[in-house]
Amino acid sequence: MCGIIGYTGNKDVTGMLLDTLEMLEYRGYDSAGIALCDTDGKIRVVKCAGRVKGLRNLLEDSHIKGNSGMGHTRWATHGGVTDQNAHPHRYGHITLVHNGIIENYKELNDKYQLQDMLCSETDTEVVAGVINHFYNGDPIDAIRRSVMKLKGTFALVIMFDDFPDTIFAIRNVSPIVVSSSEKGNILASDVAAVCQFSKDYFVLPELHTIMMNRESVKLYDLSGEIVEPEILTADWELGQNGKGGFPFYMEKEIMEQPEVIQKTIEGRILDGLPCFTEEEVTDDVLRDCNRICVVACGTAMHAGLVGQVLAHSVLGIHMDVELASEFMYADPVIDDQTLVIAISQSGETIDTLEALKYAKRAGAITLSIINVRGASIARESDYVIYTYAGPEVAVASTKAYTTQLAVLYLLTARMAFVRGILCEDDVKTFILELQQTPWAIRQVIQKRDQIHKMARRVLDARDTFMIGRGLDYSILLEGSLKLKEISYIHSEAYASGELKHGTIALITDKTPVVAMVTQKRLKDKEMSNIREVCARGAKVMLFTRESFEIGGIDEWSEVFELPDLEDLFMVLPASVALQLFAYYVSADKGFDVDKPRNLAKVVTVE
Ligand code: M6R
After folding, report:
1. Which of 40, 239, 479, 520 has the greatest number of C-beta atoms within 10 Å?
2. Which of 419, 435, 451 is the last residue of a domain?
3. Residue 605 lies in a domain
4. How much is the pLDDT for 207?
5. Ligand 1 pocket check for 344: Cβ under 6 Å
6. Which ranges of the chain have pLDDT less than 70?
């Protein structure tokens, strides 16, 4: 959570910081602020509660100018959403911004007697106080001594009054990536933000200090030795970040799905068979494990649930899907025969990262499915398979989810092949069907006006239910999360057979119900459950497939027909239909679809 940036170079830093903060705003948007070295060599801070737009307005009338500075966009943890709690914070000679949580800030406050000079309720200001306490003219030494005292996670960007045009940074767990070009040296929370000038970047290693000014970037380890960074290359196009003419990133990202799914699968199919040779995921790894466990959060966890259905129905292998935040507290049964798969768009979700580390300590083989190159979870894993979704900016995950699914289908097919569960021809047929999914998604997108019409029926609802069984239920869990997070309508996905055991009491003629019916073997039972809610007055919006005879169209408020694929693959077009449904509800209600309240794109606090 929180987006941070530091820049030194030949550009006017104010505009540069504001533009980059806007790019990073998906990480938190409770407040925004910048600090920069003004032309007189003094550090100036401007900050306010609210969005970067507000900060931009505030800065319009100011005359501060410079070529070095840092910025922050906040997702509040310690202290309310106020101007005082906005970053940067100043204490003595120190100005800093922070992403993460300092768990022992109260003890530090007491130990170093900082309270008299504190102006905010944040843990961050205490860190500034600690660094100020240890500062005796040597910034690297002060940073090193201070971070030894911190408990928690942090990415800190620091400016010292005595070195106003130099940017220092250090991190533990929370990300910082750095890029250098003739236009300047930049560091930030994510790759998309630093790769504005160059595709080459490096990940700041944990507990290493970076010192950068206009001329140079130097990296030090904790003992003060200079370290050579490992340069990586971003593999998405610079400038791929705009909204492309759509009102919101979410809409653009929904539309991109056919292409990015294709990109994710095509390079991994050789002679009609899935292969992961480039990723060096050996067949032994896929053949020898006797259990699989997915750890993930939110949408990524929902992708895992679909993977579970594939593992059970295609492979007949036991797969657990665990909420990463619960994983290590549930005493999971793991050994060196367990393959633990971490799924994450950002690759920085701390719950998932900690679950993965726990699994590694327990001896598991670890594989991650990640979108952002070089992210922490990728670096911690034995094997990594990247999705090719490109930058996903909207907080609500769409194309990251469907590309995660695409990788799970490929993995299932490879496992079925190497374990001799499916013969070569059947694996090829499975892959051919997967290759049809971009086409099916395009069909859904073409008919999006129908989904928009359905969405209008729930605009005034307070609660909705989404019902289905089996794979349909897994799809709805994700569809329901989408609706909740961006439209603020309470929505509950429910296994439709379970309704009659209590929840049906909540169904009235004021409760819109979304029903998903895509699985041949479940269709009749699902239809019976739908009729049960209709009998209680519910208005049902039905998503089903073209080939299903459902009869009595008048019974339903609206019906959307999905293009036909084999049952297991219906997830992809159906999920895109539900993404569009949530999107239109949110947009029609006039919400900021890309930045729903209280949320952030990257969740780096536990
Ligand atoms: O970056 P990750 O995939 O690890 O993020 C996990 C969740 O925070 C994320 O999927 C979240 O649930 C989505 N933004 C919901 O749309």
Report:
1. 479
2. 435
3. no
4. 96
5. yes
6. 235-241, 551-556
